[in-house]
Amino acid sequence: MIEYVSPFFRPPSEAKSFILQATIGCSHNECTYCAMYRKEEQRFRVRPMDEIKSIIDEASDFGHITDRVFIADGNALVLSQKKLVEILGYLRDRCVRLERIRMYANVGDILRKGVDNLKELRELGLDMVYIGFESGDDIVLERIRKGANYDETVRASNMLKEALIENSAMVLLGVGGVERSLEHAEATGRLLTATDPEYVGALSLQLRPGAPIFEEWEQGKFELPDKFQMIKELEIMVENTNLTGGYFFSNHISNYLPIKAKFPRDKEKVLSQIREILNKKDESILRPDYYRDVINQY
């Protein structure tokens, strides 16, 4: 029986994927906004290779793996190249219908891998990574202890493009606080333009117990923008984002205003929608607060 260390996480778009928990927790685990891997049982570690292969064998034998695999936990790309190659190769050997393999990654892991190693992983089936950009503002990135800055994020994204691995970038409304709200939004739009990811997912900051930023908020050191300030951030972000054919989503349950857009085609339409809502300031047309409250229960 496959045993998972819980809770474990995956992007919404991986809902139909088999979750292969090759690592436990997150090797960085310093981001101040994140409470995902704070429990002692989620302390970062790598599963032994024989255990990983046993999980793959069982999942394959019982039909749990069809065409999609998501390798967890927080940044599985931190694994050595040798180990990743062995895992991806074993998946391909055991799962003949496998079409795609994806995982979370952070900027530092991508930079350490380099283009040649990334190309090798692409040939073995890794077609997309999910990266938490969070912000393009270096001041905010330092405050939230992201471990990467604007320039490093651009370099890592360029490596992915050269390796033909798609980039699904996540950005975080509200993470600059009230103080740097506008700077955060504008710089994040510029970062998205410079990196040109295939997918952008905008989420809204959740203040969750266990995350250092929650303690900052309790102590009055961090002020979370209100719902219309977050929507203003979304407007500024969209305004400053130019993609050559990527998708921009804010349909995560944490957001007050869900949008789905293909850039550049839908950019002006989305901006018009956002500005109309900002002009009306009618809370009844926004996603209700209890949606966000559901998230805070986990």
Plain-language structure description:
The protein is an alpha/beta fold and 298 residues long. It has one domain (12-295): pyruvate-formate lyase- activating enzyme. The protein is built from ten helices and ten strands. It has helices at residues 49-61, 81-94, 107-123, 138-143, 150-163, 181-195, 212-218, 227-239, 267-280, 289-295, and strands spanning 18-21, 23-24, 45-46, 68-72, 100-105, 126-134, 166-173, 199-204, 247-249, 260-262. The strands form two sheets. An eight-stranded mixed β-sheet has the order 1-4-5-6-7-8-9-10. Helix 3 (107-123) links the parallel strand 5 (100-105) and strand 6. The longest helix is centred in the middle third of the chain and has 17 residues, at 107-123. It is globular and about 55 Å long. Mean pLDDT is 93; it is low at 294-298.
Summarize the topology.
Blueprint lengths: L17 E4 L1 E2 L20 E2 L2 H13 L6 E5 L8 H14 L5 E6 L1 H17 L2 E9 L3 H6 L6 H14 L2 E8 L7 H15 L3 E6 L7 H7 L8 H13 L7 E3 L10 E3 L4 H14 L8 H7 L3
Parallel strand pairs: 1-4, 4-5, 5-6, 6-7, 7-8, 8-9
Antiparallel strand pairs: 2-3, 9-10
Helix pairs in contact: 1-2, 2-3, 3-5, 6-8, 8-9
**Low-confidence spans:** 294-298
The biggest beta sheet reads: 8 strands, mixed
Helix proportion range: 40-55%
CATH topology: pyruvate-formate lyase- activating enzyme
Short key terms for the protein model shown above:
alpha/beta, pyruvate-formate lyase- activating enzyme, disordered C terminus, two-stranded antiparallel ribbon, 298 residues
